[in-house]
Amino acid sequence: MKSVALKDIDNKNFYQCILLKSEESDQHTLFEENVASNAFSIAQSKVEPEWETKAIYNEEDQLVGFAMYGLSPILNVFFISRLMIDYRFQGNGYGRLSVLEIIKQMRKSVCGEIYTSFVPTNVKAKKIYTSIGFTDTGRSVEFGNESEAIYCLKL
Length: 155
Fold this sequence. Notes:
- The chain is α+β, with helices and mostly antiparallel strands and 155 residues long.
- It is built from four helices and seven strands; from the N terminus they run E-H-H-E-E-E-H-E-H-E-E.
- It has helices at 14-19, 38-47, 94-107, 123-132; strands spanning 4-8, 51-58, 63-71, 78-85, 113-118, 135-143, 146-154.
């Protein structure tokens, strides 16, 4: 049975985490098509310590993705800010399993709602989040010249 585990990023998996990419490419960029790079996210978590960054491992203990979540210092709500599954592992259910595991961890914070946003063209993300019960709030958040709809899951 497929499963995922969220693990701390440390000196053993840091380099592997920053090399993960959501799309096949020879280049590493600060921002990919649908998500900020893992290196950017890890750096952001150091200056905004409200964010948790985690490596996502599958049932075979392979590094398959990256997540960043926590209490948003801007919106003051619990937020799944980043979720990426490396392109080599997409289509195997790890995105959905990761969201469910993140929700389980965030419930420990005694939060009643969890929010997220994603690039409007990212239909895979929308499908995952809405299938779990996230609904569009009608609000949006701006990132540079991108606008992302904000979705909420009431626990």
